[in-house]
């Protein structure tokens, strides 16, 4: 996403990628990992002298063959169709635990968006060879994701990276892409079938889309600094902002950016789709200029309205100093969402929340079909950090009269050394699809500040 200063467009925040390999604890990311209860095996690719290996769907590449692959991971590339019946082909970079035995299955953390191109997140970043995006390198390293037995999947939405098709920002086409990505990730032979979505900004918006689709395989969504209402994001009381022109122009330029020359031919052919189909760029720009919020164009992208009846466990972060993805319609969205909700809202801008406690040894225990709490409810106890640092225990909370009982038991996480994860564990108490219970009471409270340091500075 981009911001405007005195009528000029600053570089998108996502362009300023932190290259540091310093490990950080990405707390909301762990929420997704905590939720998931729940191979590709083959000869590792051998790079020619002076060249970095390029993964295929059957030949994994490790860090030793390509330094852009995270340590402890095996990278493969895959292609699959979108779910709308079009000829759009989606590209996925899959990172599995290195050496995963044939037949073993792991839960999947999925990000879907526009920032996973091999040449850079928004524009080319000067890489010397191709490889998977490093957008969430801090999350991967700081959580020891692969050592803990998770897969990380990055899917390019149509028009970006290695996916073909015309850009369709949060429209029916992009919604079909998210649906296809969830189904594809859940159905892989190395997948347990449990998928959690994680992202910030654009790939947080697709997380909201995923929630709205009500996919059984989707067990949780972590959405940090998303856009809640696309129309109001680029208009003030119906008056267009300069972003009605700047945003589509920026994404059009990004979609048409060149990818790495050593990418495989299929990837390069898909990446050139917007260049060979200039009508895609014109259509994308025209959509932002549709003035009527009641038009079919904007109704199809009304995330809050489409959230009605959804119940996927949801964790969000939202800064009130946002200059980019302001919280318009956050209240409407959360009112329409009927599942467990947790979040951090505070005085920061377009940041991704992390805690830098490298010594924290995270433990979690999540059981399918466990506790459901009333929607939009959070704890106000001063002792929340102590309360959530307990061993897994059955819930003693009786269901409301006449409410359907959930399956299984309620579990609480027990991170060591203190952490800021306390209320988040409760948000993701269920990895199953227990019936959501309606509640006439919808209290609006906020949690106490976290006990351990929280840094809001990563892209």
Verbal overview:
The chain contains 14 helices and 15 strands. With 459 residues, it is α/β, with parallel strands linked by helices. The protein has one domain: Rossmann fold, CATH 3.40.50.1820. Strands 3-4-5-7-6-8-9-12-13 form a nine-stranded mixed beta sheet, with helices on both faces. Strands 1-2 form a two-stranded antiparallel sheet. Strands 10-11 form a two-stranded antiparallel sheet. A hairpin with a 7-residue loop joins strand 4 (73-81) and strand 5 (89-97). Helix 3 crosses helix 4 and helix 6 runs antiparallel to helix 9. The longest helix has 16 residues, at 172-187. Mean pLDDT is 76; it is low at 1-49, 355-401, 403-447 and 453-459.
Cα end-to-end separation = 11 Å
Strand fraction: 15-25%
CATH architectural label: 3-Layer(aba) Sandwich
Radius of gyration: 21 Å
Name the CATH superfamily classification. Alpha/Beta hydrolase fold, catalytic domain
Shape type: globular
Strand order of the largest sheet: 3-4-5-7-6-8-9-12-13
Keywords: Hydrolase
GO molecular function: hydrolase activity
InterPro entries: AB_hydrolase_fold, CocE/Ser_esterase, Xaa-Pro-like_dom
Biased composition (Low complexity): 391-405, 429-440
């Amino acid at each position: 996403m981009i911001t405007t200063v005195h009528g000029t467009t600053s570089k998108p925040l996502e362009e300023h990628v932190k290259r540091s390999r310093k490990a950080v604890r990405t707390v909301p990311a762990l929420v997704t990992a905590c939720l998931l209860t729940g191979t590709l095996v083959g000869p590792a690719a051998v790079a020619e002298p002076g060249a970095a290996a390029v993964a295929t769907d059957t030949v994994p590449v490790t860090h030793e063959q390509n330094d852009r692959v995270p340590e402890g991971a095996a990278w493969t590339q895959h292609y699959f169709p979108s779910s709308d019946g079009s000829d759009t082909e989606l590209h996925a970079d899959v990172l599995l635990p290195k050496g995963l035995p044939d037949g073993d299955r792991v839960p999947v953390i999925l990000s879907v968006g526009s920032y996973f191109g091999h040449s850079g997140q928004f524009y080319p970043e000067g890489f010397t060879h191709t490889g998977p995006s490093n957008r969430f390198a801090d999350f991967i390293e700081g959580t020891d994701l692969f050592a803990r037995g998770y897969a990380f999947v990055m899917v390019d939405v149509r028009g970006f990276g290695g996916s073909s098709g015309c850009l369709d920002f949060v429209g029916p086409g992009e919604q079909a892409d998210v649906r296809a990505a969830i189904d594809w990730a859940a159905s892989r032979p190395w997948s347990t079938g449990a998928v959690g979505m994680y992202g910030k900004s654009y790939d947080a918006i697709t997380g909201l889309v995923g929630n709205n689709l009500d996919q059984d395989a989707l067990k949780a969504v972590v959405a940090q600094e998303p856009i809640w209402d696309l129309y109001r994001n680029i208009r003030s009381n119906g008056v267009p902002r300069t972003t009605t022109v700047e945003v589509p122009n920026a994404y059009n330029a990004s979609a048409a950016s060149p990818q790495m020359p050593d990418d495989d031919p299929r990837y390069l052919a898909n990446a050139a789709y917007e260049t060979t189909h200039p009508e895609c760029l014109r259509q994308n720009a025209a959509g932002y200029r549709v003035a009527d919020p009641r038009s079919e164009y904007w109704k199809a992208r009304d995330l809050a309205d489409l959230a009605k009846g959804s119940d996927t466990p949801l964790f969000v972060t939202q800064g009130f100093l946002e200059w980019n993805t302001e919280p318009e319609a956050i209240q409407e969205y959360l009112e329409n969402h009927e599942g467990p909700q947790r979040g951090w809202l505070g005085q920061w801008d377009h940041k991704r929340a992390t805690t830098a406690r490298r010594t924290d040894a995270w433990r979690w225990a999540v059981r399918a079909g466990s506790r459901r709490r009333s929607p939009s409810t959070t704890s106000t106890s001063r002792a929340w950090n102590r309360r959530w640092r307990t061993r897994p225990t059955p819930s003693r909370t009786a269901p409301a009269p006449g409410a359907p009982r959930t399956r299984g038991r309620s579990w609480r996480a027990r991170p060591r050394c203190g952490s800021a994860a306390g209320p988040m564990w409760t948000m993701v108490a269920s990895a199953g699809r227990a019936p959501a219970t309606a509640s006439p009471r919808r209290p609006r409270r906020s949690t106490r500040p976290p006990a351990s340091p929280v840094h809001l500075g990563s892209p």
